[in-house]
Specification:
Length: 260
């Protein structure tokens, strides 16, 4: 089922809550500039295996409200904390992809991992996000021709072949975001650094990363593995930035095994 959670006056986040009676809970944080819908091929499988799956659209993205401000890691982490408190979640697995991984890391350090029993970082935009050059190119396109920017994002995202209908679906998902939130998060990814957050993560952490990732290099996953205690790195040999889709069978099995 889908519903909204108010995170501050006038700002409501959309939450997709599948199998609320499931015995173990997984909270999914999507990447930029996508939405919870990127995890469709997890939601097809994991709830039927008995898991409660919760997808949260960050402010400015997907079905959530799109305020003009609040696009900092601290505020985005605060939003997640409000959802966790409102839904009274505890002992859950937090899965963050790309920028969602960066938000998950900030949540862990800022709130001492409140409620999180396990952390899963998927091609996380950490400890740094975009290079200045990449960010400035995306920013220019976002403010002048956002559909072209989203096409460039789509074209560079996957290592595996994607069909034209899939590409169109993915492209439209990115355009659901607001232009201003899309641009604000590009700046966040250019300017933020999570090195000081990493030693504060105490939950067991699984790091998943596609070795062909052109968005966040595999070397950054190796760096996370070195800097996060009690972490394990699993490389995906046939994936770019989207192992949750490119190797979805392996991904879903690994996630289920890790939580079990």
């Amino acid at each position: 089922m889908g519903y909204f959670v108010t995170v501050e006056p006038g700002v409501n986040l959309y939450v997709e809550d599948l199998n609320p009676g499931g015995n173990k809970t997984i909270v999914f944080l999507h990447g930029w500039p996508l939405s919870h819908k990127q995890f469709e091929y997890q939601f097809d499988v994991l709830p039927a295996m008995g898991y409660r799956c919760i997808g949260i659209d960050w402010r400015g993205f997907g079905n959530s409200d799109k305020p003009i401000s609040g696009y900092t890691l601290n505020r985005l982490a605060d939003d997640i904390r409000t959802v966790v408190g409102t839904l009274q979640l505890e002992n859950f697995t937090l899965v963050g992809h790309s920028t969602g991984g960066a938000i998950a890391i900030r949540y862990m350090s800022r709130y001492n991992g409140y409620g999180v029993s396990r952390l899963v970082l998927v091609d996380a935009a950490a400890p740094t996000g975009f290079t200045a050059e990449t960010a400035n190119n995306f920013l220019k396109e976002a403010l002048n021709d956002r559909p072209k920017m989203m096409q460039d994002v789509t074209d560079g995202f996957f290592f595996q072949y994607v069909t034209r209908p899939f590409s169109d679906w993915f492209f439209q998902m990115g355009l659901q975001a607001a232009g201003w939130s899309t641009a604000a998060v590009i700046v966040l990814l250019r300017d933020e650094n999570l090195n000081e957050d990493l030693p504060k993560i105490v939950a067991p952490t699984l790091i998943i990363h596609g070795i062909h990732d052109k968005v966040i290099p595999f070397s950054q996953a190796q760096e996370l593995n070195q800097k996060i205690r009690n972490s394990k790195l699993v490389s995906f040999q046939y994936s770019g930035h989207g192992p949750f889709w490119e190797e979805r069978g392996k991904f879903n099995q690994l996630l289920a095994q890790y939580i079990h």
